[in-house]
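Note to self: user wants both folds in one dump. Writing first protein now.
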Amino acid sequence: MVELQRTLVLVKPDAMQRGLAGEIISRLERRGLRIVGMKLIAVPRALAEEHYAEHKGKGFYSGLVEYICSSPILAAVFEGPSAVKAVRQTVGKTNPVEAMPGTIRADLGLMTGRNLIHASDEEPGSAPREVALWFKPEELAGWSRELDRWYFEED
């Protein structure tokens, strides 16, 4: 059986305001990742502060918290083999002008502060911590698709 990972994706306020949520989610689904949780949320300040806690004390922290709270966002959990790495690769580098063509940020973004999407990083434990921060266990649905056999190789 293939080992699956789960990872958090946040479609940020700039993407929501620009009407890009569907395209962003679609790109990740077309990659072969499946949605196991999704919700539209007006981010409470306390949640934003906890999510960005690693940046507390940095000059951009306040602006980051204000920004993520400025518009409803779409929070999603994607699942698949090497999901964290696959999502990060599909999203592209943090600075859109440094991201590879074909990535979400390169194709749709221009500036680091308006880079459309958050994706859990590859630090061990980062994705599970973020998923647990944004979703209760009962909000996540374990399921399989008929198409999974065309995306996921058996060991």
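First done. Writing the second protein, which came from a different request thread.
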Amino acid sequence: MSSAKTKSRQCAVQALYQWQMTGQNLSLIEQQFKEDQRLKNAQNSYFVDLFHGVPTHLDTIDAAFIEFTAREIEKIDPVERAILRLSVYELIHKTDIPYRVVINEGVELAKSFGADGSHRYINGVLDKVAQVQRKTEIEAKKKK
């Protein structure tokens, strides 16, 4: 993955975290990120897609991963919740990105922003979501 997309994901996770914690208007948060130059070196259009896509599809996203967690959505650490939501959004809506890349990016986000060991939790949940959401892609890879 390009470093610009990685930077977009990093900013989107931070923005989603802010949205989850404050309930602020998405456009206001997006504007803050642009004004603060946090999107420098990011692919702006991808950031916007991720940041606005997650809240738009929140019910579908949460439903796709909640069965693989032992906690209710609101009891999942807010950083982990933002990472899971972003990554599951990509697994569902960005099928041009290989599932292994999505999982790896989610794990790296957890290593950067999450608590110690949260990357293992993120990896486990995303792997299970991928088995459902990307079943055809996974089966095709196994046949090679």
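Dump finished. Worth passing along: The longest helix spans residues 3-22.
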